[in-house]
Design goal:
about 180 residues; eleven-stranded antiparallel β-sheet; 1 helix; about 10% helix
Length: about 180
Amino acid sequence: MKAIKQPVKMTYQTPSRIAAVLSLLCGMAHAQQDSVIYQNMRVFEIRDGKKTDAYFVKNQKTFTTEKRIIREINFDDSTRHTLNYTFYFYRDQKLFTEEVHGSNDSILYINRHTYNSRGLEAQTERLEWVRGKMKPVARTVFLYDKNGLKTAMKESGRKKKPFRVTSYSYSEGKLSREVSTA
């Protein structure tokens, strides 16, 4: 059985219809551009003690319009190439993970954040590649008083025994003392 080719019906689009589609596409591109905010950290060249117009971008951050960071790129000072970049992911309006990638696009490590029932950050865990799998290599635990003020931060490595504890004291609701013990 032979396939029979059907003639293709060509339709002529009116100029106003084409203009409407182009206008819609331009509006979408403009809306996309307005949905993020870029922040560049520039390093200017200094000659004879004066700032010149020559600069390079050392760091670029991308924020949502709600000022929530979603990406950060760090550049090497000497080569000006990408050193590493981080993607920030959120769950229930709170930072959930930070994925840090190297210049070759491979994941270097992940910082995972968990929160207590009051919505305060309870723990940060760093995951790195260990024998081909992402495994916890460091942990920071945060403790709070009944008013939600941070009273302690305990940092530990793979052995889970804290290697540094930082205590916080407050006076009239303001941080008055911070003491770290290693």
